Amino acid sequence: MAFLHELVRDCLQDEKAFCTVKCPFNLDVRDFIGKLQQGRYNAAYKTYQNTVGFPGIVSVLCPEPCRDVCALKEKGGSVSMRLLEAASMNFARNREPDQYNMPPKSARIAVIGAGPAGMACALRLTTRKYKVTLFEKSGLIGGHLNDLPDADILIDDIRLQFKYETLDLRLNSRVTDISVPGFDAIYVATGMHGDTFGLSLTTEGHYSTDRNGVFMGGSVTGADVMQAIAQGLNAASVIEGFLKTGRMDHFEPPATETKLTYSAIKIIPSGAIRPESGKEYSREEARAEANRCLKCTCDACVRYSPLLSYFRKFPKKITEEVEVSINPSSLDGEATLATRLISTCNYCGLCREVCPKEIDTGEFLLRSHYTMREKGKMPWAFHEFFLRDMEFSTGEASLLLQPSEQGEVKYLFFPGCQIGASDPRLVIRSYDFLLKNYPSTALLLGCCGAPADWAGNAPAHKEVLNKIRSAWNDLGNPTIVFACATCNLMFRKHLPEMKGIFIYDLIARSDAIPAIPSIHGNKTASVFDPCAARYEDGLQETIRSIATGAGFRLEPLPMEGRLAECCSYGGQVSVAHPPYAEYTVKKVISRNTNPYITYCSNCRDTFARAGKETMHILDVVFGLEQRPQPTVSERRENRLRLKAVLLKEYGNDNFNMEMKESKLTMSSGLREKLDTSMILESDILTLIETCEQSGNKILDPENGSFIGHLQIGNMTFWAEYRVVDDGRYELINCYSHRMKIEE
Amino acid sequence: MEEKKKLICFKCNKELVPKKTDFSYLGHTFFTEIPKCPQCGLVYLSEEIVKGRISEVEMQLEDK
User: Fold this and answer.
1) Shortest alpha-carbon distance between residue A734 and chain B (Å)
2) Are A189 and A112 in contact (CB under 8 A)?
3) With contacts defined as CB-CB under 8 Å, which chain A residues touch B43?
């Protein structure tokens, strides 16, 4: 999948921090600081020591170029790296270098000059057990460090780092000709104004000269002291590469740039910690300063996206797992490890919105979902309930009403399948409003196909879209009036030829609707933008103006507008991954304590179920009181009731649809269990009636009840019941499973 | 623990007895002993076993 590689290529997860690329040593500040934050001074010191070679010199002399690029520079002050480096040394248990028990290597290297660059190169090479001969024209090691104040301390650090290494140090040995035989490589680090032996640097490799096997770096090539040490350390790696491959450019140079951007970082301002002693941090001060560090990394997706934060996985990891599920590498070719991960996405689009590179992990997962379904690798159970519901909405509960007025049909009201399921009155009153103001409005009860799209079910999706397209064509291509942001999104994506508007805009601009009842007298609430309305700026404003007009005082949510979150319904994750759905809904209803006003009936019902006071904007418009969320069975009954009322009111025929009285009785607790288990009462009635007709039932002689089961679709349902009288049944218990009994 | 409940097949008037029964899910098949009518083969699965072992195996197969 080309898309997969694009996704990983653009991701900034592995980009280095700003400070790291500015550091001559490329110190992994995130790692170093992370250890300090945990109080692991010894581990932090080891990281520092291994990176800079001479920690006692660098921590004193480094001019801290990292401070210039620190994300906190203007937000309380850059992190004091040098003081933290010193703290790691002061509080480390053991400052001695490590002793590496490795066999000596036979290659011999000559280093010319015992200044910072030469010493650094010699240190790294001797640590790797090369035979190094260091020629120094003077009688001192350290070069120009000897001219600095506290030179003894600096030189002592050089001695300390060489404590366990063998170095053939030849002081007072001026080299006049580098054609000395017996060396496999030579590093020239003769210091400022030092002898270059007629060599010049080439552009082919770092520190490589025009003479094979001879390298040059440090102050003789214009480096300052920090660069000189860093170059010496790097030169050791270049030389090692040369010794192994014969190539002088065998080296990955340190990064000097990062693609990371400040906008990708969550910047939490904090005041810099000043050492009370004036010079050095105490342990507590060091920890506090380390804790200020943001460890800059691009993790916006993991911070914001519910899926990525729940799994703590970056897009790169996700793509890897999905890839091995689509193209399994297991011996039987059957392993599909990421099916649940793929099915857990709400397709809310937040990951793309917060990503500086606009990486759309959600779209990737959706495409993967389609692929997995095509391969027959997606468990049917994740989506069957919703696909059956879609079948119901587009079948038994569907309805097309033509306006009574003759002539052109201007509008087609498409309320979607869920608003009527939530409460039929919302659709009935909306259609009343439309007909009063726009008499040439038709109505289509159906479904936009979102359940099929989310299930990756291309054939079912196509069928639904064709139905809508055909009705729209028959009506003469009217403008669609949406009430559901998801329907609007689905139409834009899959039926772009059908232009639409939102009923809320018509409501807001209509003076014929004095009906917005201001019963909410200055009540405080927050508008919860549905994720499908993320890019509907105008709609977001309209909803707020309606709510304000109805008397609400609105307080913003931290995540709204472009940062809208999914209520947990999207992608039908409640079956594929119930704990994730719970995690998501809990998170979003806790954004503040205000009641929410939303304009998606799934958000409304999901929140109401979770105990959060939430109104649909149409509840506000039509002055409906708080209502409980309907059960899964009531959602179906509501749609049938809606169809019956609309047919009676506006249908051309003398339609009279009797709502059947329920033949099932059960306790309220059991009704709730059916609801949470997503078991339809109508399915249970079918089960019981089938058992009663066939006699295929089990008698429990202890209490006289019957037990029966029936597979409906792929799911098998079980019911324990008693026959009351005249085709009525008392349901005692009910449960279901996905596994098929091979009877 | 599966309860030792006495259950009668309504049609055959026979007591259900543990018998090997095949199951399938997502292309995998397996068998276990569950109460079954010795005459017509009508089976019984208690809620306990459905919510327990069956649900566990379903999850494992979905994540396999």
Assistant:
1) 8
2) yes
3) 709, 741, 743
Whole-angstrom distance, CA of residue A5 vs CA of residue A213? 39
Q: Among A151, A65, A118, A66, which Cα is nearest to A229's?
A: A118
Q: What angle do CA A478, A600, A425 make, to 5 degrees?
A: 75
Residues of B within 8 A of A741 (CB-CB) are: 21-23, 43, 45
Pairwise CB contact (< 8 Å): B25 & A735: no
- Nearest CA among A690, A727, A685, A688 for reference residue A707: A688
Residue A627 falls within a domain, yes or no?
no
Into how many domains does chain B fold? 1
d(CA A666, CA A660) in angstroms, rounded, equals: 17
Question: Is B3 within a domain?
Answer: no
Q: Distance, in angstroms, between B16 CA and closest chain A CA?
A: 9
Look up the domain containing A201 and give its range.
108-245
CATH number for the domain including A114?
3.50.50.60
Q: Copy the structure tokens of residue A741.
A: 């009994």
Q: Residue window 681-710, chain A: list those with CB within 8 Å of chain B.
A: 695-702, 706-707, 709
Confidence of residue B1 (pLDDT cuts 50, 70, 90): very low
Query: In this complex, is the C-beta atom of B30 within 8 Å of any C-beta atom belonging to chain A?
Result: no
- Beta strand B17-25 with B28-36: parallel, antiparallel or unpaired? antiparallel
CA A540 → CA A339, A486, A544, A613, distances in Å? 35, 14, 6, 20
B contacts of A342 (beta carbons < 8 Å): none
| Mean pLDDT of chain A, nearest integer | 93
Q: Report the pLDDT averaged over residues A385-398.
A: 97
Which pTM value belongs to this model?
0.84
Dihedrals φ, ψ of A674, to 5°? Answer: -60, -40
**What is the tens place of the pLDDT at every residue in A551-560?**
899 999 999 9
Residues β-bridged to residue A554: A525
Taking alpha carbons only, the member of A711, A515, A703 closest to residue A618 is: A515
| Residue ranges with strand state E in A299-429 | 399-401, 411-414
A538: tokens are 């105008």
Total number of domains constituting chain A: 6
- Domain endpoint, select from A569, A595, A621: A621
Is the pLDDT score of A196 beyond 70? yes
Mean pLDDT of A690-708: 96
Residues A159 and A56 both lie in one domain:
no
Q: Using CB atoms, which residue from B11, B41, B43 is nearest to A695?
A: B11
> Which residue among A379, A698, A701 places its CB closest to the CB of B26?
A379
Q: Using DSSP, state whether A292 is helix, strand or coil.
A: helix
Does a structural domain hold residue A657? no
A311 touches chain B (CB under 8 A): no
Contact B43 A739 (CB under 8 A): no
| pLDDT for position B2 | 47
Lowest mean pLDDT among A491-495, A521-525, A692-696: A521-525
Residue A3 has pLDDT above 80, yes or no: no
Could you identify the residue written with the tokens 């090539």?
A221
Q: Kindly indicate whether the ipTM for this predicted assembly is greater than 0.90, answering yes or no.
A: yes
- What is the domain extent for residue B24? 12-62
Q: Within a domain: residue A471?
A: yes
